[in-house]
Inverse folding.
């Protein structure tokens, strides 16, 4: 098992080196992509600064706490965009052209090769910027190191990444039957937009069912809310356990469904 893990890590490093070399062949495009991400974060921070100039909290979140939430979202979204999004977007084209055949004959796990073969280095700075925003937020709060909170944050943040990846994998697998996945990826942006907000805002007569559905049925609201709450507010053991269980279940379901989709694929030669 260890030898297999080392093999996959070495392979992933080589894939990352290859995609970086391709990215650097068009440095202008790379710099534009990085600039867009910086501008987007700046606009997001300016918007929330304007909001907090008019109020002291949003749904019970103070300004430093909400700043940490935004940084957490930006980091998680950066991980998804850097490591998985481009690959999942390209899957429909692989199906349409039959190029998926060449990947399926490789002596390697199909899910790994299809969803991890490229890295989008242009969005990699999002991880650093998101981490910097979280650091500034903790500094503003005068946060002191807490081992339990830190470990809970790391575990639930990893779970959040896995949940987001699982949803994306489910949408990607549908491309085997739908061939084009533009509308499916728009649904992913809907999910990521929901993850951008604290679940506490989904209260009231009309909003409560939305919050319940996207917390306990399609738990996309867990991916940022639970780790951010654990780090800068209060740890809810029940939500932490639910997040871990949901992660395991969703990852298993998404992998089973993805492998089923590959079995249903009709190659270009058939």
């Amino acid at each position: 098992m260890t030898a297999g893990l080392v093999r996959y890590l070495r392979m992933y490093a080589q894939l990352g080196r290859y995609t970086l070399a391709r990215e650097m062949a068009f440095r202008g495009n790379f710099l534009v992509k990085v600039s867009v991400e910086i501008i987007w974060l700046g606009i997001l921070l300016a918007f929330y600064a304007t909001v907090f100039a008019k109020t002291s909290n949003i749904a019970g979140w103070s300004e430093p706490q909400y700043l940490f939430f935004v940084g957490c979202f930006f980091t998680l979204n950066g991980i998804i965009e850097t490591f998985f999004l481009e690959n999942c977007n390209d899957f429909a084209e692989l199906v349409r052209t039959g190029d998926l055949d060449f990947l399926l004959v490789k002596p390697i796990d199909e899910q790994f090769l299809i969803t991890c073969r490229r890295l989008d280095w242009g969005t990699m700075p999002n991880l650093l910027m998101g981490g910097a925003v979280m650091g500034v937020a903790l500094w503003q709060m005068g946060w002191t190191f807490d081992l339990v909170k830190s470990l809970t944050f790391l575990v639930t943040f990893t779970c959040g990444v896995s949940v987001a990846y699982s949803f994306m994998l489910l949408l990607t697998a549908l491309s085997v039957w739908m061939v084009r996945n533009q509308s499916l990826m728009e649904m992913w942006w809907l999910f990521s937009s929901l993850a951008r907000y604290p679940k506490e805002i989904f209260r009231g007569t009309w909003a409560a069912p939305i919050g319940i559905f996207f917390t306990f049925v399609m738990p996309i609201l867990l991916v940022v809310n639970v780790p951010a709450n654990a780090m800068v507010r209060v740890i809810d053991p029940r939500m932490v356990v639910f997040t871990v269980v949901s992660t395991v279940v969703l990852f298993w379901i998404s992998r089973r469904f993805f492998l089923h989709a590959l079995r249903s694929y009709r190659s270009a030669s058939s």
Notes: The beta strands are 57-58, 61-62.
